[in-house]
Specification:
The chain has 5 helices and 7 strands. It has helices at 10-18, 39-51, 85-95, 160-166, 168-184; strands at 4-5, 24-25, 58-67, 103-114, 117-130, 146-148, 153-154. The protein has a 7-stranded mixed β-sheet. Bound molecules: inosine 5'-triphosphate. Inosine 5'-triphosphate is lined by residues 7-9, 12, 28, 46, 61-65, 78-79, 88, 106, 139-143, 167, 169.
């Protein structure tokens, strides 16, 4: 069984590789409009769209940061909250100025689809806190401001393999792997 992975995000691809995911890349130069209102809907839209371009099952994921004091924002708009990663982070910190409650979580939903039909979705989450000062150079996206209390570090200060072990993406991928094993007796 040949599996494909559709993402244009290099950070996600690096973490898929850490998981040992063996999947062929898909041309993502013509992405679908992500007009769903949940991570599940947007992951399904992407997986369904790219599955029409391949001859086997495709995984796609939708992920983001939910900040409690911002009513769950940036949420499904995380990638394009303000623009680039640094603009996104700047906006996040500005929005949280003077706000005491800092709890937040990363969410990752992976969808698998074949020939235009979504077969399953899997959700992983990891809880943390938003810190004003950017710390660390590793990871991507909001990682310099995402403090993970059990490590007493931001995810950008955490070595990639260590971040990955506890991450939202890993939790969703583990469920995917269990599902694939069951369905295709492979992996
Ligand atoms: P694809 O749709 O092509 O996969 P994308 O970057 O547009 O790539 P999303 O719409 O799912 O993907 O947006 C995910 C955003 O959420 C990402 O750009 C980051 O800003 C944030 N994010 C998700 N997981 C993250 C992580 O592990 N560390 C830091 N930021 C993360």
């Amino acid at each position: 069984m040949k599996l494909y992975a559709a993402t244009s995000n290099k950070g996600k691809l690096r973490e898929f590789a850490l998981a040992g995911l063996e999947a062929a890349p898909v041309d993502t130069s013509n992405p679908p409009e992500e007009n769903g209102s949940t991570f599940e809907e947007n992951a399904a839209i992407k997986a369904r769209h790219y599955s029409l371009l391949t001859d086997g099952p495709v995984i796609a994921e939708d992920s983001g940061l939910e900040v409690d004091a911002l009513g769950g924002a940036p949420g499904i708009h995380s990638a394009r909250y303000a623009g680039s990663d640094s603009e996104n982070n700047q906006k996040l910190i500005t929005e949280l100025q003077g706000v005491e409650q800092r709890t937040a979580r990363y969410v990752c939903v992976i969808a698998i689809a074949e020939k235009g039909e979504v077969l399953a979705t899997f959700r992983g989450e990891v809880e943390g806190e938003i810190v004003d000062q950017a710390r660390g150079n590793s990871g991507f996206g909001y990682d310099p401001h995402f403090y993970y209390p059990p490590f007493q570090q931001t995810f950008a200060e955490t070595p990639p393999e260590k971040k990955f072990k506890v991450s939202h993406r890993r939790k969703a991928l583990d469920q995917l792997f269990a599902w694939l094993k069951n369905r295709f007796q492979t992996l």
